[in-house]
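Q: Sequence in, structure out?
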Amino acid sequence: MIILLLIVAGLGLGSFVNALIWRVYQQEKAKSKAARQKLSILRGRSMCVHCKHQLATADLIPVLSWLWLRGKCRYCKKPISWQYPVVEIATALIFVGSYVFWPVTLDNTGTWLLFITWLVSSVGLIALLVYDLRWMLLPNRIVHPTFFVALIGRLSYIVFFAEGKAHSFWLLVFSLVISSGVFWLMFQVSRGQWIGFGDVRLGLITGTLLADPAKSAAMIFIASLLGSLVALPGLITGKKTMSSKLPYGPFLIIATGIALLFGSPIIDWYKSILGL
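A: Exactly. Output:
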């Protein structure tokens, strides 16, 4: 039953992610306050990104509507991007995968609070991942609410459910120092040439969700490894150079999910190699 609920929730929120990405991008381009308010995700009705025709309920069923309409708008017949069903399915898979591989047993209110905090925050992270892939930006309109959700959830857990409140709080602080502080230092030293300030802000979200300095360090290592693996073929073939820009946010977000769900066994494995 829980799996089914997570699939439905994931598909629905995946649809929300697609709408959020488009509206935030249009808001960033809008020149007037009135235009930005019209594009608000809380006020505006769903519309075709091409003809701006208001969509009916039948047009908004995740995945199924896209398949039924054969990937085209019902009104203007222009193509609807593959991004829409892919993001919806990916969000549902992330929700289910998070439940299946959650590192602790969900047997009390505190653990459920952290799980739900992660699911809600992951909606923002998925939006940031797609946005950064498309436009190489991490907009504050998504970063700030996602950080707020992550922080409120984590602090609520520490205050009401953590056994060692002071210890848990300082783990959170040091996690933030690593996940965001390292990128802030890189940004300052390179004057923004090595990394964008959006990654510094993103580090606040990832550090809060992980709330463990060891997992934050693992997250940075995994993200760097993934980034290197993606960049390497382009460097070898000469299609990319060392100065070519590569969005780093998606690697940080994917690495955060890996570190959150599998961080402890990865860290234990690494310690065993070092003989610690």
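Residues 1-100 form one domain.
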